[in-house]
Amino acid sequence: MSKATAVIEAPEDSGLICPAEQIFDAQRFRGRLAEIVARTNDAMTIRTEVVKALRTEQAEGRAAIAEAFRAEPFAARPMTRAYAHLTDRLVCSVLHVATEVLHPKANPTASERLAVIGVGGYGRGEMAPYSDVDLLFLTPYKITPWAESVIESMLYMLWDLKLKVGHASRTIRDCLRLGQEDFTIRTSLLEHRRIAGDAALAEKFDTRLREDLFAGTGREFIEAKLAERDARHVKQGQRYMVEPNVKEGKGGLRDLQSLYWIAKYIHGVDKAADLVPLGVFTAAEYETFAAAEDFLWAVRGHLHLLSGRATEQLTFDMQVAVAEALGYEDSGGRRGVEIFMQAYFLHATEVGDLTRIFLTKLEAENVKAEPLLERIFRRRRKIKDSYTVINNRIAIADDGAFLSDPLNLLRIFEEALRTGMLIHPDAMRLIKSNLHLVDDEMRNTPEAQRIFFDLLLKHGNPERALRRMNELGMLAAFIPEFEPIVAMMQFNMYHSYTVDEHIIQCITNLSQIERGELEEDLPVASSILKSGVDRKVLYTALLLHDIGKGRPEDHSILGAQISRKVAPRLGLNKADSETVEWLVRYHLLMSDMAQKRDIADPRTVRDFAKAVQTVKRLDLLCVLTVCDIRGVGPNTWNNWKAVLIRALYRQTRRALETGLEDLNRENRGAEAKKALREKLKDWPRKDLLAETGRHYDPYWQGLHVTAHEVFASLLRDIGDDEIRIDLHPDEERDATRACFVMADHPGIFARLAGALALVGAQVVDARSYTTKDGFVTDAFWIQDSEGQPYDAARLPRLRQMIEKTLRGEVVAREAFKTKDKVRKRERAFRVPTHITFDNEGSEIYTIIEVDTRDRPGLLHDLARTLAASNVYIANAVIATYGEQVVDTFYVKDMFGLKYYSLGKQRTLEKRLREAIDAGTERAES
Fold first, then answer.
1. d(CA 760, CA 680)
2. Where does a domain end: 187, 211, 235?
């Protein structure tokens, strides 16, 4: 066995984040290798000792890179080069050991040559801390036993170093054949780089790829990359999803890399900067490209280091950690993580602009033309004289003439909507680079106001124009107050989009309702729009409803103040501007009333009707509320919310039209008893009288007749020690209704809440009533962890657990010690606890509202605390907003009175906070 210790090859080591000798001490390793070879001839021992020595170099190198990167957190390129340099050294070292020590060949034949080629990201010389190492072992002919032994030894050593190695052993002919068949392989070969080994073989490989694989195939490569990009975006979601994938998501690194791949394939460039002299990018666009690439690589690097693995998803908990690593701090009422994520989404938007401009231009130049017959027979709307059509996209005929009138910066979006065509990337460039022409004089012209409202109201798809205007910066230029919320992330689990994208999603919903696409799902909102509302007011209010977000003040109040200035500038008259201001100020009112209050309580409807005052406002607010909730995320709107909003709307409209005096408990009670008699008309008169006489007034106005019918059956002939349960899917509300009847005793509500929490049920509404003859009738509406009603197959287990808890076989408080855990990704959220007491919102109850962090078992802890304080809970309304929950309790004291005493309120608040803190500590331990 050869004792040779030749100098190990090393690649270019300039531009590293720290000195090369700190990353890998080649001299020290050579000395260690010489010692190992001098000490033993045993191959296995040598391999083991070599790996041990390389582990030391690897660990110290990784530590040096990480420390330097933490000191310079935005030094992304030097960081990626440093990790690639470390990997190069490791690969070169194991190749040297395999060829010169373990499998030496004094006189190799022509076929016993080997080149080690890096492909993919490693071939490009860009690596994050835990990136894969993709290697191609290139041989001139069919692999020989010697090459097979070398490769096997190399791989074992690399695997022992815990590197995630992707590898292939191929000839040049193999690579050409497979590259022709598979575009993924062709792309990886595009980014090849010789790491070590036979230089002549690697050079021949490079030449054959250029001449025999890449040349003349640009069109099909572009088509494949565009299709691949579209499929990736569908899989990963939109750019504005709040937990983006840094590598694969829209606007992420893969989009930039796709751009680079195509540029290299078509133009033969080695780096993106080479595209500027070619006219593909302007100098400013290249600067944008470089800034986005640096930022995204910095994020990915810290994400890997902080998670200790190759993770690409920027989850909520990692967002906080990465923001801190990058030095973002809280400022102006916003958390550092929110400022960081806004920067992230702004860069993602820039990436989208660049790739769209670049790829669309290449698509026009390289993708197959539309068939002649289709071009002849397809009808196309006539374009206006100042525009031209290039590849079915609107382009500008004369840049100078276009820019001579700033209104043209708006008109082109109208033309795109009118014709249904996309805007050409060159026109987008021109718009984006001339936004300074949009000034107050332009904004205040009647023609600008007309064009803008035609975009919203005339063509039926305003979201398309708004999204393109927003991405090009035109929306913020026309409405400067919009700029602070562009790409603004809301750091919570409730909102799925950035603020600007949320607003566009809301307007998308409104236009869908107007087009009649949601009539079955949204009958009330659809009927309101059909009967006619002021569309200009509604669209303006929806556009501005969240414009005050991101500052310390209440965003509804600040948004109303902003809309007071913006609405008149858009051309609205005084009355309409005041309506817009009112809608922005109170855009959460209907949602809060419906989800946080008992709408079966006449006082709730009466107070809401007094706030709204007119049917016109009610109609506008109802539609705005529906669009706002649906625009939060793809699964936020459900039948439960729909039922609540519809009920509040119909009751309030009736009150406004017939008078508030119709809202009283007596009327509701009489109507409910009459409805129950109709349902139970086959019951003996004596039993029916007993049933309608055993309940107090709140019972009759708080439940639907279907629940009254169930409770009547459960109560009929019940024994004193008997527990009766009815579980029934309530499909109209997307929930399961759980009805319980048993002898009344203290704390039963809390025990029921605990039993439901133990089986993973989420309570969305709960009502508790005591009969005159000493029984409790409790109704809970529950959903599973996915927000769906329980299917029939799961109801027996649900019933079994409830019965065990009620019998005392399972103690909820003890069981929560193992079940009540907050997931890691949710621990980054700050949800301060607010507890309020309201004695005006109900005629007979004090309303206690607990706004805090959600977790399993919270309702049980709160209810148990109230029961221990001799508080009687009449009903509970639960509204969940991601990690935040608002539990509202309608309560009386043990004497049936409200809690007017401030001292009693403070005592109760203190106990509730203690229960919340104890549960939080338990969940996070």
1. 35
2. 211
One-letter amino acid at 348 equals: A
333 touches 552 (CB < 8 A) = yes
- What is the rounded distance in angstroms from the CA atom of residue 685 to the CA atom of residue 662? 30
Which tokens belong to 11? 């690649």
Domain containing residue 63: CATH number: 3.30.460.10
Sequence-separated (6 or more) residues with CB below 8 Å from residue 14: none
Q: Identify whether residues 166 and 282 lie together within a single domain.
A: no
Distance CA 591, CA 545 (A): 14
Q: How does DSSP assign 331-374, residue by residue? A: BTTB-HHHHHHHHHHHHHHHHHHHHHHHHHHHHHHHSPPPPHHH
Collapsing DSSP to helix, strand or coil, 461 comes out as: coil
Q: Do 193 and 97 have their domain in common? A: yes
SS3 782: strand
Cβ-based neighbour number of residue 269 at 10 Å: 17
> pTM of the full predicted structure?
0.85
* 246 lies in the same domain as 191: no
Looking at the structure, tell me whether residues 643 and 746 fall in a common domain: no
Q: Is the pLDDT of residue 129 over 90?
A: yes
In sequence order, what DSSP letters do the residues of 782-793 get, joined into one string?
EE-TTS-PPPGG
Q: 912, 871 in Cβ contact below 8 A?
A: no
Model pLDDT for residues 703-726, shown as the tens digit of each residue: 888 899 999 999 998 888 888 999
Per-residue pLDDT, averaged over 245-260, amounts to 87
Cα–Cα dist 385/509, whole Å: 34
Identify whether residues 641 and 743 lie together within a single domain: no
In whole angstroms, give the CA distance from residue 165 to residue 151: 12
Residue with the larger pLDDT of the pair 748 and 341: 341
Which two three-digit tokens encode residue 813? 């408080």
What does the pLDDT average to over 254-283?
83
Tell me, what amino acid is at 806?
L
Give strand pairing partners of 170.
138
765: which strand partners? 781, 877
H/E stretch holding 861 reads helix 858-868
Order across the sheet with 762-770: list the strands: 724-730, 735-743, 775-783, 762-770, 872-881, 884-892, 846-853, 834-838
273-285 CB burial, b ≥16 within 10 A, e <16: ebbbeeebbeeeb
Instruction: Name residues whose C-beta falls within 8 Å of residue 63's C-beta, 6 or more positions apart in sequence.
Output: none
Helices (H), 433-585: 440-443, 446-457, 462-472, 474-478, 499-514, 523-531, 535-544, 555-569, 574-585
Same domain for 183 and 243, yes or no, is no
Tokens representing 772 are 């005159």
> Does 190 lie in the same domain as 312?
no
- Which domain does 247 fall in, by range? 219-366
- Are 299 and 186 within one domain? no
Higher pLDDT, 2 or 255: 255
Adjacent-strand bridge partners of 829: none
Q: Is the pLDDT of residue 5 over 70?
A: no
The CATH number of the domain holding residue 289 is: 1.20.120.330
Separation between Cα atoms, residue 420 and residue 551, nearest integer Å = 38
